[in-house]
Design goal:
By secondary structure, the protein is mainly α. About 80% of the residues lie in helices and about 0% in strands. Helix 5 packs across helix 7. The mean pLDDT is about 85.
Length: about 240
């Protein structure tokens, strides 16, 4: 086993980081690109697929089976299959499997989110004259946002982690720091890669949570009302007669 820190070698060489900030920034940008594009592509497929599965429940089990089967495919095997078509150093070789993997999370999230819409809400929308499309856009999708965003957050953090596997074919974003550090028995790139990957996941999750809050203003209002109610109940001015 190769030790993480060789004798006399510090865990982090700050001078190395300073000399390689440009390259680290480039790898970070690549990592973001290869994480975000598959999420957007997966969401573009998952939304209509989830809507179809919610509308025709009979097709949901086979669609779910297909997405789960895609998720079970080893990333390395998919890379090998794609290399003849996309190239060994292509970002596309990494992004295609990641887009497929996101479907196993996003399709169920869309279906579950739409299933969480109460029937009486749909009936009320129909009663005031909403057609199917308007009801979907104005009523059902907004209510489904929290569940869909929960799945999107999981898929995004997972993608940020899985991009590093692409380093095995020479295009892994921050994962290239792992292979570089391992090959040279030099821990600093590995530490930098780990820290930046964790930081990127936290930032992405925070941004998605902020987007969710913007898309669901009624949830914030409900939380404020609940806090105000609890404050009134706990107020010392409320005494028993």
């Amino acid at each position: 086993m190769i030790p993480l820190v060789t004798e006399g070698e510090p865990l982090v060489r700050w001078d190395w980081i300073g000399r390689n900030l440009g390259e680290i920034g480039s790898l970070l940008a690549d990592h973001v690109l290869m994480s975000v594009v598959p999420i957007l592509a997966g969401l573009a497929v998952a939304l209509p697929a989830g809507l179809a599965c919610a509308r025709w429940r009979r097709i949901y089990p086979p669609v779910l089976g297909v997405t789960n089967a895609l998720y079970a495919l080893p990333a390395i095997a998919v890379f090998i299959m794609l290399i003849p078509f996309t190239g060994i150093g292509s970002r596309t070789t990494v992004m295609i499997p990641l887009a497929l993997y996101t479907l196993s999370v996003l399709v169920p999230s869309v279906v579950d989110g739409l299933a969480a819409v109460p029937d009486h809400v749909r009936q009320a929308a129909v009663a005031i004259g909403f057609g199917p499309v308007r009801r979907l856009v104005r009523v059902e999708l907004p209510i489904a946002v929290p569940v869909v965003m929960a799945g999107l957050r999981v898929a995004t953090v997972s993608n940020i982690s899985l991009v590093s596997v692409g380093a095995l074919i020479g295009v892994g974003g921050l994962g290239d720091l792992f292979t570089d550090g391992f090959n040279r028995d030099f821990p600093t790139p590995i530490v930098v890669g780990i820290v930046l990957t964790i930081a990127l996941a936290l930032v992405a999750d925070g941004l998605l949570l902020a987007v969710q809050r913007l898309l669901t203003p009624w949830a914030r209002a409900g939380a404020r009302d609940a806090r105000a109610s609890r404050a009134r109940l706990a107020s010392p001015e409320r005494t028993a007669p």
